[in-house]
Design a protein that fits this description.
The chain is mainly alpha-helical and 142 residues long. Helix content is 87%, strand content 0%. It holds the Pfam family DUF1622.
Length: 142
């Protein structure tokens, strides 16, 4: 079996390991920034809608936009975990921890997606067909 010790010199391994740590940390920081910016953008958007006199719509869009920001941030955090736990120091223990983290974050993503769209993901096609049917019915009736 060929290992990285046989292919790369110790100095090169150190440089690669340092680069992977840096990449994982940068992506993780980017995920946090995306979540924070998503919260701020959703808040500003919602306050603007409330100022125009639509509090019910503002609340719904706030929850949806907040969920979208969190979902996008979670994707970055999962990518950072994959780099940090598997590429840097691969082991079965770290792989198990990564699997658990991904299961938890996937459950959160799934829950947020349902919260945003208000339907099960596998029912998306049904509602798109229904919405398209309504649009063509409106054109016929008009």
């Amino acid at each position: 079996m060929i290992t990285s010790e046989l292919i790369f010199a110790e100095e090169i391994q150190g440089v690669i390991l340092h680069g992977l740590h840096w990449a994982a940390s940068t992506i993780e920081l980017l995920g946090v920034v995306v979540i924070v910016c998503g919260v701020l953008a959703a808040t500003v958007w919602s306050l603007n809608e409330m100022r125009h006199g639509a509090p019910a719509d503002a609340f719904r869009s706030y929850r949806a936009n907040l969920g979208r920001g969190i979902l996008l941030g979670l994707e970055f955090l999962i990518a950072a975990d994959i780099i940090g736990m598997v590429a840097i120091v691969p082991s079965f223990d770290r792989l198990g921890i990564l699997a658990l983290i991904i299961v938890i974050r996937t459950f959160l993503s799934f829950s947020l997606q349902i919260e945003i769209e208000g339907r099960w993901p596998w029912r998306r096609h049904d509602s798109e067909v229904r919405d398209a049917g309504r649009g063509s019915l409106r054109r016929i009736c008009a």
